[in-house]
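It would be a great kindness if you could assist me with a short task in structural biology. The matter concerns a single protein, recorded as an amino acid sequence and a row of backbone structure tokens. The record follows directly beneath this note:
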Amino acid sequence: MRVYVPLTISGLATAHGAGELGPGPLTAYAVTPGLREWYVSDDIEELEYAALSRAAAASLRLLAGAPDTARRRVVIAVDVPDNTVAADPDSALDAGSLGEVRIASSVALAKAAAVHVDAEDAVADVTAAADALGAADHGDDDAQFTVDGAEDHELLWFGVQEIPNLIA
């Protein structure tokens, strides 16, 4: 199963140094039954993009809680055995946790298929979105507009071998 693990640049550096994502349990995003029902599509590429987008939103939350880290969202796509991934069936249709899964233990970075990171031109919007996230969560429409502005930026695709350049 392909899962998308949200990180920050500093989290990516830690994972690279350790050679693994972890320790577990890890929160990730995947094509779950709840995500399929919400997205109403059978196109696996569209569904995987939706899971990646959910992970990017979770990465933004990590950035909001870590003001001293580089303001770029990071998501690692990892292939793991199906039996290592668990979704909470009680939250299958909860909009806040669509596609969310747990991986019980750490995952070797060698299992990563790709790394997705914001381009430099997204930093200003991602910074503003991270700063506005708390207000958006409390119903501020202007803050939500700012948060949505970060989602206008597509994450770039990088091969795992490019991690040293990303964290430099």
About this structure: The two ends are 30 Å apart (CA to CA). The beta strands are 2-7, 20-21, 26-29, 74-79, 85-86, 100-103, 107-108, 112-117, 156-158. The first strand starts at residue 2 and ends at 7. The mean pLDDT is 92.
